Automatic annotation (TrEMBL):
This is Carbohydrate ABC transporter permease. Belongs to the binding-protein-dependent transport system permease family. It comes from Microbacterium bovistercoris. GO terms for cellular component: plasma membrane. Signal peptide: none annotated. Its main location: membrane.
């Protein structure tokens, strides 16, 4: 027996409710409410960008301004009384370049150590078949809430380990960030198990799978963690200030701290008999600008990896 076919409206899927668009004469047009939302969104983002960029632009303006205008509070976004004498004094100081080189070395070594520890630890605890997996995760999380304290850490690093006035006192104590570890662990847990199984069938060991399969396919999260560690180490100063006495081993951040502390009147920047009266804000702006410039120049090249790495490691499917 032949039955009547159901109406076309019953077999076609329902049309999506676009809400913010409407079609007229075959042309899709945005609704008034959606256009208002776009305008408000753009205005809000422009305000956020302005608030974010103002401190950096003000820093640049003060770095190239004369001392009198800075002291009078007349420098905002445009330099007043163009001045490069502080730049010449700081760049002419041999200690600045020595400490700058120390910062580069500390950052490279610390980042390499941190990435090795974080990747290996995160990959190990991301394996569900690891014996004692819960214990190792708990040990890492425990350190997020409790620490030995400043004095025990100082005794450990300076006395027991004998690392005072060495690079290891700067790069080792904070080598592993538990936050970065958990983000990378989450990323490795979402890694397709089929790829690892296929590599194991082809004869790769656990180390071979990790170094030849997992790491090459994890560039986004690796770039993100590298950026986190490198920026953190580049900006750190307290560890070096605590464990290092030799000024030739200081990072540039400690140089900046000492320079600002001494900029209360007449300051000898170059270590010679010539003395130049500077305003602390001008010296601070110049040295801070020279310090953050490498990070500012580097970030645009790895920004796309940074965004995708955070998104990949922040959710678990």
């Amino acid at each position: 027996m032949v039955t009547d076919a159901p109406p076309e409206a019953d077999i076609l899927p329902p049309k999506p409710d676009l809400g913010h668009v409407r079609a007229e004469h075959g042309v899709i047009k945005e609704s008034l409410g959606y256009r208002v939302f776009q305008v408000v969104n753009v205005v809000a983002l422009l305000l956020i960008c302005a608030v974010t960029l103002y401190p950096f632009i003000n820093l640049v303006a003060k770095a190239f301004s004369s001392e009198g205008y800075i002291a009078a509070g007349e420098v905002n976004l445009i330099p007043r009384g163009f001045n490069i004498e502080t730049f010449q004094a700081v760049l002419g100081d041999g200690l600045f370049w020595t400490n700058y080189g120390n910062t580069v070395i500390y950052t490279v070594v610390a980042t390499a150590i941190s990435m090795f520890l974080t990747t290996t630890y995160a990959y190990a605890i991301s394996r569900p078949d690891l014996k004692g997996r819960t214990f190792f995760i708990g040990v890492a999380v425990f350190t997020m809430f409790f620490s030995g304290g400043l004095i025990p850490n100082y005794i450990l690093v300076a006395s027991w380990l004998g690392w005072r006035n060495t690079i290891w006192a700067v790069v080792v104590p904070g080598a592993l960030s538990v936050f970065n570890l958990l983000v990378m662990k989450s990323f490795f847990e979402n890694f397709p198990a089929e790829l690892e199984e296929a590599a194991a069938i082809d004869g790769l060991s656990t180390y071979g799978v990790f170094f030849r399969i997992v790491l090459p396919l994890s560039k986004a999260v690796l770039a993100t963690m590298t950026l986190f560690y490198a920026v953190g180490m580049w900006n750190s100063w307290f560890g070096a200030f605590l464990y290092i006495d030799d000024k030739n081993l200081f990072p540039v951040t400690v140089y900046l701290r000492n320079l600002i502390a001494s900029a209360t009147g007449t300051t000898d920047l170059a270590g010679t008999a010539a003395e130049t009266t500077q305003v602390a804000a001008n010296i601070q702006s110049v040295t801070m600008l020279l310090t953050v410039l490498p990070i500012v120049c580097l970030y645009p090249f790895i920004q796309r990896y940074f965004v995708s790495g955070v998104m990949l490691g922040s959710v678990k499917g």
